[in-house]
Write a structure and sequence with these properties.
Length: about 325
């Protein structure tokens, strides 16, 4: 009888403890998602069909399981796009206003858009995020600020990430920055610039895909070769980390934005949703992502960093 009582007690203890063990085990797994762009290597070609088995994903150097892989082709897929213009940009940006307007008008109906300006470290919106693209254009104007009036474009990007003008968690978030990329608080190229790194982390956590178009600032100090190089390289750090792309034309301002907008439009039409399961110790973490694709004739843009959260049961 004594042994039987011990066995019953042990069984009851195990049953009581089981939910706790299951809960802990569930917290050991992580999950995440990313927006991946796949384009043909040559213009005019149709991107190759890419299947789940063509992918190899590693998170923080460890193999991850692909749980979802699908193109964003449903007419119900939602996109939110913010054009973020540096308030210190040179007034010659006025030559690009028609092309900016044409790009906004060309966005498909499923894309909500807004125009914001980098002002004193903030992303200041001149109008709402809306699918009414004519209304969006009412907010378009020359920046009219002084040199460095954005403070740092990376402050402004962090502010946008923290105060995204929508609560739609199911919409893709795309950002197009028009700036010289110079951090006035650390004017040299430093990949460990704390403001840059904070902007990358905030952008990844907010699930933003960031693109950048280089345009010079009004300040004389920002017109040097060193400033051009630093700004362009810092922008490349942000865009590559989030799965976007930087556009520039040598050390000067581009003659036209039209080729960049054409590529942006193609990218928005050729994006995939990647879902994955990976190891995670507990709390949400920003981790490195490495994606390999076995599909000849394709060009892949995947974020270098992703947010991994505890897996839901």
């Amino acid at each position: 009888m004594k042994n039987a009582g011990i066995a019953v007690c042990f069984a009851m203890t195990a049953l009581l403890a089981a939910p706790v063990f299951a809960q802990v085990e569930g917290q050991l797994g992580g999950q995440g998602e990313a927006v991946v762009t796949i384009l043909p290597k040559h213009d005019g070609e149709v991107p190759a069909s890419v299947a789940n088995q063509d992918l190899s994903v590693k998170i923080d150097g460890k193999n991850a399981k692909v749980t979802k892989w699908a193109p964003f082709v449903s007419p119900n897929n939602r996109v939110e796009l913010v054009l973020l213009i540096d308030s210190g940009a040179r007034n010659s940006l006025g030559r690009q206003m028609d092309e900016i307007a044409q790009f906004i008008k060309s966005l498909p109906p499923n894309v909500k858009a807004a125009i914001g300006y980098m002002e004193n470290g903030n992303a200041t919106f001149a109008g709402p995020l809306t699918a009414d693209h004519d209304q969006v254009l009412k907010a378009l104007h020359l920046p009219g600020g002084s040199a460095g009036s954005s403070a740092s474009p990376y402050f402004c990007l962090s502010d946008l990430a923290k105060r995204w003008p929508s609560n739609d968690s199911g919409a893709r978030r795309e950002v197009v920055m028009v700036t010289n990329g110079v951090d006035n608080y650390d004017r040299r190229f430093d990949p460990d610039d704390p403001y840059l790194q904070a902007a990358v982390t905030d952008s990844v956590r907010a699930r933003m895909v960031v693109y950048a178009i280089y345009w010079g600032d009004q300040g004389l100090a920002n017109r040097t070769g060193a400033a051009n190089n630093a700004g362009q390289n810092l922008l490349a750090e942000v865009t590559q980390a989030t799965g976007g792309k930087s556009f520039w034309e040598g050390s000067g301002n581009p003659v036209s934005f039209e080729p960049y907008f054409d590529e942006l439009s193609r990218r928005l039409k050729n994006q995939y949703e990647l879902g994955f399961a990976s190891p995670l110790k507990g709390k949400p973490e920003v981790e490195t992502l490495k994606l390999k694709l076995s599909a000849p004739g394709t060009e892949v843009s995947a974020p270098q960093q992703v947010l991994v959260v505890p897996r839901t049961q």
